[in-house]
Design goal:
The protein has about 400 residues and is mainly beta. It is about 10% helix and about 45% strand. It has a seven-stranded antiparallel beta sheet, with no helix packed on it. β31 and β32 form a beta hairpin. The longest helix is centred in the N-terminal third of the chain and has 7 residues. The chain is globular, with a radius of gyration of 21 Å. The two termini are about 25 Å apart.
Length: about 400
């Protein structure tokens, strides 16, 4: 899920640290609350919260790639929240649109209430269907810039701290990103060429690396002859065809990752801000660290966690699966893909994968992320069960 506004670029400074951030004369930062979260595929963080005086608990994505804070349009309608028209626009991978707002509203997480927030309204139906969990909103800059936020992917706990002098965990690395509303960091990509560029840091994007086709073409960063696989990604504005490949290495700070899955697409709405930026780094990289997001000090601290050496997802089936009205439906079966060769068709309903009849889209996605695996499926088509044998391909 790819969101963001354009911003100017300037030089970034990176340095190692095992001490305190901000000025030594400031008061120490104070812990306000510890908030549990759920982790979805791709490292997406889901927080439970309420808004205003509403009793209903809602699902929010924690997203550094959002320059504000937002609510789903159907959630706003259900809660009967008053809205305000605006001339502002928001852009995504598949379109640009004007937005309405719910103004001067509070966000209530366990143990911490944030007042005077203006939520822009968007349609997150596609995110709900992708993850199989209702997405009611996105928490971005409007919340993050008021606190120090620690995200622990090992314990699934987010800590919220009052800003101040902060002692970072030992053995980590501190980066000073360029920060307007979305953080930007420098990274080095090595494949066909070795290229230094700047990228959005986007914890709301369930992928590793996203490049604009213009950046990839102009820099010749992708090795000539590198295998490209046609795929599709879902984000703000709808679906977008992309190519999926790998790059030999990505490096930022002291951290190096090899054979990194990479999405490349024609960025007609310039969400990647080329030529200022090269694209974005997503949460399938950042979930490998426990993060301290300290926007008040313009600092982000990276501490490798237990997932640091996890393998990347190189699987390819060539189909999309979505949770729709309580059922898991196959859509967007691409020509020549493993899904098409197995006989799958758009509109097929998944009854089981292997011996798993759980109707849990997160479980099914995990089972389909094993390159070379021979998967037995049962789908319902025209009311009849059909046995399918699917072999998962690798993009490497």
């Amino acid at each position: 899920m790819i969101k963001g506004l354009l911003l100017l670029l300037c030089a970034l400074q990176l340095f190692a640290v095992n001490g305190t951030g901000q000025n030594a004369g400031e008061q120490p930062a104070a812990l306000i609350s510890k908030v549990p979260f759920t982790l979805l595929t791709g490292g997406i963080v889901i927080l439970r919260a309420t808004v205003g005086d509403q009793a209903d608990s809602l699902n929010f994505v924690l997203d550094t790639g959002s320059g504000g804070i937002s609510l789903d349009s159907s959630t706003v309608e259900y809660l009967r929240l008053p809205t305000v028209e605006s001339d502002r626009t928001i852009r995504g991978i598949a379109g640009i649109r004007k937005v309405k707002y719910v103004t001067n509203m509070s966000l209530n997480l366990p143990g911490v209430t944030t007042d005077h927030l203006n939520f822009h309204i968007n349609d997150y139906d596609i995110l709900t269907s992708v993850y199989g969990v209702r997405i009611d909103g996105i928490i971005g800059f409007s919340f993050l810039n008021r606190y120090i936020v620690k995200v622990n992917y090992d314990t699934h706990i987010m800590e919220v701290w009052e800003p101040g002098r902060f002692t970072y965990p030992r053995d980590g690395y501190l980066i000073n990103p360029l920060l307007s509303s979305i953080p930007v960091i420098e990274a080095n990509i090595k494949d066909g060429n070795t290229v230094d560029a700047s990228f959005y840091l986007d914890t709301g994007a369930g992928l590793s690396l996203l490049l604009s086709e213009a950046f990839a073409t102009d820099t010749k960063v992708i090795k000539k002859g590198r295998k490209m696989t046609l795929t599709q990604a879902e984000g703000l504005g709808g679906k977008k065809p992309m190519y999926l490949t790998t790059v030999k290495r990505i490096k930022f700070g002291p951290f190096r990752f090899r054979k990194v899955p990479t999405h490349i697409f024609v960025d007609e709405f310039n969400v990647t801000a080329y030529p200022v930026l090269g694209g974005l780094l997503g949460n399938d990289i950042f979930r490998r660290f426990n993060l301290v997001i300290n926007y008040p000090a313009k600092e982000i601290h990276f501490l490798p966690n237990s997932h640091y050496s996890d393998g990347f997802d190189y699987s390819y089936t060539g189909m999309g699966i979505y949770y729709v009205n309580g059922e898991i439906i196959i859509e967007d079966v691409l020509e020549g893909s493993p899904a098409e060769m197995a006989g799958l068709k758009g509109g097929d309903r998944i009854l089981a994968i292997g011996n798993n009849f759980s109707n849990n889209i997160q479980s099914y996605k995990n089972m389909l992320q094993v390159p070379g695996a021979k998967i037995k499926m049962i789908v319902i088509r025209d009311g009849q069960p059909i046995n399918i044998n699917l072999k998962v391909r690798s993009i490497k």
